[in-house]
Amino acid sequence: MKVYFNNSCKICKAEIDLYKKEKIEEIDWIDITNNELAEKETSKNSKQLLRRLHVKDGEKVLGGAEAFLFLWKKMPKYKFLYTFFKLPIIYSVFTLLYEIVAFFLYLKNKKQLKKN
Predict the structure, then answer these.
(1) What CA–CA distance (Å, rounded) separates 68 from 52?
(2) What is the pLDDT of residue 113?
(3) Which sequence spans correspond to the domains of the chain?
């Protein structure tokens, strides 16, 4: 399983760093910042990759809230998040809130990337 995340976003990096501490060998952490291979592997362009977290398992690529659920399901310490956020009403709210937060993080990070 590969997790495609934005290492140039401070908030994204902080969260992923927490997950990396779990040292789950079957998870490859891929920074998507200026990463053409990530674009090829996911069939997503750089904007799409910067916009949301993505997970690739086999040939299936998941993005956004769905990617987080898949990731949490694979991590024993965070499986409770999967169990809670997959509940139908909670999932709908989670998906909406994720998209709002991800959009603003994308805008913030897009400005940071232009400065560099």
Answers:
(1) 10
(2) 61
(3) 2-115
